[in-house]
Amino acid sequence: MSTYLVTIGLLLALVMAGVAVDGIYRRFARRHPELGPFRKEGGGCGACSGGHCGSGGHCATGTRDNA
Q: Which of 1, 8, 19, 37 has the fewest C-beta atoms lying within 10 Å of its C-beta?
């Protein structure tokens, strides 16, 4: 029984740490707008939200142009 409680506690701590890091990242991005826009979850590389995507739309497809 104690193993389950410890596991649940560790998972909760891990999720809370992720939320805290996300908040720290958002505050940092808000204080330093010269570094570019905040990357939203599932928003691609962040260039499209800043208007730098161009007509190619590489962020919308999720593919990389290496060729």
A: 1
